[in-house]
Amino acid sequence: MNTETTVHDYFNRPLRDLRISVTDRCNFRCTYCMPAEIFGPDYPFLKRDELLSFEELERLTKIFVHSLGVQKIRITGGEPLMRRDLTELIRRIKKIHGVEDIAMTTNGSLLPKYAKGLKEAGLKRVSISLDSLKDEIFGKINGRGVSVQTVLEGIDAASKAGLQVKINMVVKKGMNDSEIIPMAKFFREKGHILRFIEFMDVGNTNQWKLDDVVPKKQIIEDINKIMPLEPIDPNYTGEVASRYRYVGSDVEIGVISSVSDAFCSTCNRARLSASGMLYTCLFASKGHDIKSPLRSDLTDEQLTTLLQDIWNGRKDRYSEERSVVGKNRKKIEMSHIGG
Ligand code: SAM
Ligand code: SF4
Ligand code: SF4
User: Fold this and answer.
1) CA distances in angstroms from 33 to 40, 142, 205, 272, 276, listed in the order given
2) How much is the mean pLDDT over the chain?
3) d(CA 152, CA 275)
4) pLDDT tens-digit profile of 230-281?
């Protein structure tokens, strides 16, 4: 690890993880992320020239890795596989010296087409989102009637291509909490790590209520009653999921408890939107425009200073302050910031 280049924020948290959103578009309309009533046919999605180009993303990533201490890159969206030639971006990032890990979060629907090429380009891991094993529940959640089988085929294609696979399930009370146990059993059998994500108040359009959150404690208790679990240590500082293993097996699950058990004190992630805004928190109300300076004649050194200053001044810890500041805050939508 190159500690000389590491930047630290106001609370002494380093920057290690850069999440790059490559598009704000998606072929799903998940109710908790891009509700169809709001993200309809007239929604003003970004135009091509408003997106950061692959050249711009490569230049920025180099600066983040070589001069700010970033080690991990995660590609997200919108649905990242809707961005044309995405494998080309993976190939470029893979070549950057110092990138230790390249992962992607995807809804899985386009993986049968792209998994092999992504692996060949250097992608290591995919987190595939799936919230239910029942078509009637899943079709409603994804807002497009997409079948469970479509995503299962994506999961299989990713495994076959040699990508490490994790499954993400957002849990919302009354929506899919009845699916916690069936999903746990299914993915235990398949041997994939399933991660339960507490429904979060990202953005302002998803009608979030605290009552809709199924807290980590309950998820673990419910599974433990049927399939005993034991906690395991985090893989590294700043890992967002609390890990558990099924007793007597080597299959794990994780729970991402942004609401019931905040982990801001170790948060080392920055998020770059497809339009070139940098956010230092998932719940940020405003970002920092990086596209304009990138498209001006600033040198790499000047851009580095700009980015260092942003991280140095970071004071975000929204999940720890939610109950006080949460209610009326204007926040960036999940499909823009990328999760
Ligand atoms: N389209 C890709 C996908 O769905 O995996 C990548 C982008 S999506 C915004 C990233 C992750 O955020 C997904 O796992 C999704 O389920 C999760 N997510 C979206 N809205 C959420 C919310 N309100 N609370 C918790 N997780 C959410
Ligand atoms: Fe699309 Fe992912 Fe948001 Fe669902 S969670 S609407 S798949 S970006
Ligand atoms: Fe990081 Fe913000 Fe989430 Fe806290 S609320 S863990 S600072 S992204």
Assistant:
1) 13, 9, 8, 18, 20
2) 94
3) 31
4) 999 988 777 889 999 999 999 999 999 989 988 899 999 999 999 999 999 9
Q: At what angle do helices 300-312 and 54-68 cross, to 10 degrees?
A: 60
3-337 placed in CATH 3.20.20.70: yes
Binding residues for S-adenosyl-L-methionine: 32, 78, 129, 200
- Ligand 3 centroid to residue 63 C-alpha, Å: 23
How far apart CA 314 and CA 36 sit, in angstroms, is 34
The Cα 123–Cα 23 span in angstroms is 18
Q: What is the pTM of this model?
A: 0.96
Q: Ligand 1 centroid vs 339 CA: distance in angstroms?
A: 6
Please spell the DSSP secondary structure of 291-305, one letter per residue: HHHHHTT--HHHHHH
Q: Tell me the chain's radius of gyration from C-alpha atoms.
A: 19
3-state secondary structure of 140: helix
User: Which tens digit of pLDDT belongs to each residue from 290-300?
Assistant: 999 999 989 99
Closest CA to 165 of 73, 256, 252: 252
What letter does residue 157 receive in the DSSP assignment? H
- Binding-site residue numbers for [4Fe-4S] cluster are 26, 30, 33, 264, 267, 281
What tokens appear for 318 in the block? 């929204």
The residue-averaged pLDDT of 316-330 equals 79
Count the Cβ atoms, other than its own, within 10 Å of residue 3: 7
